[in-house]
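Summary for the lay section of the report: proteins are chains of building blocks that fold into shapes. Here we show the chain for Nitrogen regulatory protein P-II family and then a coded description of the shape we predicted for it.
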Amino acid sequence: MKRKLLTVITEQALERQLVQCIKAAGAHGYTITEARGEGQRGVRNADFDQGANIRVEVVCEANVAQQISEELHRRYFRDFAMVLYLSDVEVLRPEKF
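The coded shape description reads as follows.
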């Protein structure tokens, strides 16, 4: 069964707001891990404290992924470091997503 994998890499300070947006869109769950790397806004180290980045992954139906993407774009793209991308995935337990 096909679903979308929505991946968001952004500032840890947005975690609570992202989770609210994901739940409000109807996603069944999410995974958050720490993230580090380098981009246009500089290097992010491995410290998982203020100023760190997080990686949020959501496997969900396409319309839910689209709704979350549009909301994050509208609210955060202009003022926050945020990378967002969608991938097609094949899930083995579609009832969970």
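Put simply, here is one thing we learned. The chain has one domain: 2-90.
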